[in-house]
Amino acid sequence: MTKWHGGKGSRDRTKDYDKYNENYERIFGKKKDNGEDEMPTKLKKSVKTYNRQTGKTTTEHFYLHATKQSELERIANDPNANPKLRIKCKKELTKRKKNEKIIK
Question: Is residue 87 scored above 90 in pLDDT?
């Protein structure tokens, strides 16, 4: 009868802990300190369109950073717009003004 060894993969096989930690940080990384999100903010849901002739589906995304400033200002000042959307537009406008000051 053989002795039980704890199952497959139960033992820690890491030899060089410094290299392991360095690569772990490189792969998974830390969150950004400047408060930027990983994914860009959307103005509205993405739209998929299917072309019957070619059989291809194209996806159109509506990101805030790609929206014209006049459109953002219109939404931010519209009292009938969704409040959450208005806040998103105002944040994007302030971000653009801050970047504009840095460039000058």
Answer: yes
